[in-house]
Structure formats: structure tokens, C-alpha cells
Amino acid sequence: MSAHQALFDRAVKVAPGGVHSPVRAFRSVGGTPVFVARGCGARLTDVEGREYIDFCLSFGPLILGHADSDVAAAIRNAIDDGWSFGACEPYSLELAEWMCARLPWAERIRFVSSGTEAVMSAIRVARAATGRPRVLKFEGCYHGHADGMLVKAGSGLAGPAAATSAGVPAGTVADTLVAPLDDEQALDRVFDEAGATIAAVIVEPLPANYGVLPQRCEWIDRLATRSRAAGALLIFDEVISGFRVGLAGMSGALGIRPDLVCYGKVMGGGFPVAAYAGRADLLNLVAPLGPVYQAGTLSANPVGMRAGLATLEKMERLDGWQALEDRATRFFAGLRSVMEPRIEVVRRASIFWLRLASSDPVRRVEMIPAGQSAWYAKFFHAALRHGVYLPPSPYEACFLSLAHDDATLDEAVRALAAAAEDASDS
Ligand code: PMP
What we know:
Elements (H helix, E strand, L loop, with lengths): L2 H9 L24 E5 L2 E4 L4 E4 L14 H12 L9 H13 L5 E5 L2 H16 L3 E5 L31 H5 L1 E4 L4 H11 L3 E6 L13 H14 L2 E5 L11 H6 L5 E4 L10 E5 L1 H4 L18 H16 L2 H20 L3 E6 L2 E6 L15 H14 L2 E2 L8 E2 L6 H20 L1
Helix pairs in contact: 2-10, 3-10, 6-7, 11-13, 12-13
Bound molecules: 4'-deoxy-4'-aminopyridoxal-5'-phosphate.
The site of 4'-deoxy-4'-aminopyridoxal-5'-phosphate (PMP) has 15 residues, from helix 4.
């Protein structure tokens, strides 16, 4: 029996499905999960000593790669100073000032411990500010696992049996309106019928939780315009895209100023750090200033704050987003040359998704080719055999890091070409 199987057999006896977050269980690709012992740079090493080039990167946070030396030094220093105070400290102040100085829409910021919390809190603020009950979200966008957001959400939930979650009261879901992506008419219908009851419109400006489904700027513009006209707040969920699609994320790329923005992943450098930020008048509704209660024992944890700041400062110092773009341009040209025409490489900045090719642009969930799940399960395991670790779901995005140098990426192209061949043979 493999070391992985032995560990998994133990894990299923203590945790539901053997995991602490569902996609890790390999349910949608089959087989036994790989147990990782270490990560270094672009690579993971499993408990049997096998190495993989990692394109999952903890589902996005590790933009500098695993165990980056500068982030590691910041963490070591932080630990030497003690790791949780539950009191005011200068570290969250530094990170907050860094972010607010660079993101014009972040007039105020509140740190929390997960993207789920950031979204849940931003929505509470929006409801308090508008006095309205409803939230409009889009089919296939995932915004964490708060009750009201588990309606037609993303990859961990993707699949015929579980379009939504059990345990969510009908009353909660009644306040969540869902519209398809990429559809101006549907948008207009929702606003015409229910605009006056909508507190907030929440969207991943680069939907990346049901595959990567890049949207037309016109659709996002219409969304922003209709939200404002209806008096609904615009919440950009940039948990994936924030500090990934450039320093200013999709808000910067689109030139749209959201009322509230949710961050996570990259901003915490791989620690449980997230934030909601936005207009001062909205954030000032939050306790202790205002009537919206939101708190956290470990919020703004100093180790996470210092890891996050070290990550962002290093990216800025190295012009990391441009460096990633240069690597990406070369890598994706190579990857496309071996994957096309059967497989399409969808990419935005250092985020990408491999899916069965389609004759039309895929901007909505139902346009994803039907064979994606079956193909990806084969491809994923072939990639593992060839030494590449991809996210264990046909609908999760892949990521590059600054630790993925050209030599590593060339090796990855060769491995993925071989994996694609294996997957089409079997
Ligand atoms: N929003 C988006 C866009 C996300 O991708 C995620 C996580 N994948 C979340 C919210 C939830 O974040 P967390 O897993 O930290 O709760």
C-alpha cells in the first residue's frame, strides 16, 4: 500500500472525506489524494519523496512560490516576536497603509481570516447601508461558503448532484438572486423586476471558480451601470484576482471603482488572511464605529500580516507582475503549441485553465464542453505521473509563481504534452 493510501485511510477516520476542504479529496478526478510533505519554489515533494512542478499553489496565494526566502525571513522574525496579541499592533497598520496607498477604492480596510468572512462581512455592510435585503450573484461565481452565497457556486460544488448546499435555509436563499454571466438581457430583467430590493451585486470580475470564464468588458460595464442606477452597491470579489492580475487586480484593469472589494489569497502570502475594503462611509458602518458587527479573535494576525506585506512588497520591488507576464507569454506559447487544437489554454495574467476546446468563447457555465470532467480526470492523473501537480478538479484554476523559471516551465510543457498524449490514448 502506498504511503498516501495509508495516510488517507487514517484521515477518513477523523475528518469528513479525509479532508478539511472538499476539493483536496480528489473526488472529481478519482484516486487517492497525494499527501504533500514539503513545498519549495515551484515544486512540491510528496511523502514518498516524489517531486512535482506545482500549478495549484495552494489554490492561488503563493505568487512567489513555496517557502520564498524573504517571506520566510519575515515569518521567522514575526514568530520571534510572539504570534498573536489580540491587541493593537503596528503590523496590520503597515499592511493596511500599504494597500490603501495603492488602491484608490480602498479608503478603509478591515482584515479578516478568510475570503468567506470577507464576503459575508461586505454583504452585511451593504445590507446595512442600503436597508435592502437582496444580493445578486452570478451562476458559477464562488464567493466562499456563507449560507447566502451557496447558490449556483463554483468548483467544489460543481457537478450534477450538488448545485447548492444542504443545510442552507430556504429563507436565506430567497434573498440571493442568481443571473447568468455574459447576458445583458438577463441582467436588465433582474434589475427591472427587483432593482429596488437589491443591496449589492457581487461578482468575480474574472470568474475563476468554475473554470476561468473571462467576461466581456461591456457586460461588466453594464453590470456596474445598472447597479449604480438601482442604488445597489457593487462588490468585486477579488479573492483570486486581487494582487494576481497586477497590483490593482481586476478593479484596476477594468478601470471600475467598486464600492466594496474582497481580498484574500495573495494578500496573505499563504496565511489565513483576507480583507474587505472600500468606501470610507461604508466601512465606517462597521463596529466599533457603526452598527454593523464584525469581529475576529485572530483577525490581523501578526504573522499573516507580515507574510502578506513581505509578499506584496517583494512583488512590487521586483516588478513581479511584469516578470510573471514575461514568463507567462513564453510558457503559454509553448503550452498552446502542444495542447492545441484539442485542448484550449484559457489564461489571464498568471491564472490559467486547461479545458477541452470549444468553437465559441466559453463565458458561461453551460458552455463548458460536456467532456471536460472525464477528460480532466485522465489528464490530471497523467500529469501527476509525469511530475506535474495540477488542481484536483476540472473546474479549478491553475497558477504560475515567480519561482516558476523558464527552465521549470519548459520542463512542465514537455510533461504536460506527454500527459495530454496519455489522456487521449486511454
Ligand atoms: N471568493 C473567491 C473568488 C474565491 O475564489 C474564494 C476561495 N476560493 C473565496 C471567496 C473564499 O475564500 P476562502 O476559501 O478563503 O474562504
